[in-house]
Amino acid sequence: MIDSPELVHTQHQADPTNRTLDTVHREIENVSDKLETLIKSEARLTNERFDSVAREFELIERGRTEQKRDTKEAVDAALVAQKTAVAEQTIASEKSINKSEAATAKAIDAQTISFTQSLSAMQSSFSDLKERVVVIEAKDVGQFHERNERRMSIGQITASVSATFLGLSLIVSAILLGIHH
């Protein structure tokens, strides 16, 4: 083989396929590098998107968990407050009932005292009326006896007077008869 510049030149020119293949290989490597860079970029971008979505889910979950905890705490606090309110209402109701019962008992006691006093006053009035009736009856009986005695006295006096008058009339008649005879 002759090493002539023409020949070398021709060999290079003679084999354009090699050059084209070299160029294609370089372009393929370039495209491959660019494609690899693009794929890596896309992978990083996709990973960033997934990480971003994961962070969003994590934030949402954290917010949901916090809201759930806050809601539970609020419900627990409301239940405790309600329980306390019920206990206080029960105590207030019991106090009110006790107060009402005491007032009722006091009112019943006052009515009992009033009733007893009224009954006592009525008994006193009845006793007084009874005594008056007894006195009036005694007076009536006494007056009745006195009237009867007066009647008897008047009747006796009338009988005595009549007897005396009769006796005198007899005497006068006897005298007159005796004188006329």
Mean pLDDT: 82
- Provide the gyration radius in Å: 75 Å
The termini sit apart by 249 Å
**SSE topology string:** HH
With helices defined by DSSP (H or I, 4 residues minimum), what is the helix count?
2
Number of beta strands: 0
Please mark out the parts with pLDDT under 50 across 5 or more consecutive residues, or reply none.
none
Largest sheet: none
Number of separate domains = 1
Residue share in β-strands: under 5%
Q: Which key terms come to mind for this protein?
A:
single chain, 181 residues, mainly alpha, 2 helices, 97% helix, 0% strand, rod-shaped
What's this entry about, in short?
With 181 residues, the chain is an all-alpha fold.
Please tell me about this protein's structure.
The chain is built from 2 helices and no strands. The model has no long low-confidence stretch (mean pLDDT 82). It has one domain (5-180). The longest helix has 165 residues, at 16-180. It has 181 residues and is mainly α. The chain has helices at residues 5-14, 16-180.
Set down the secondary structure blueprint.
Layout (H helix, E strand, L loop, with lengths): L4 H10 L1 H165 L1
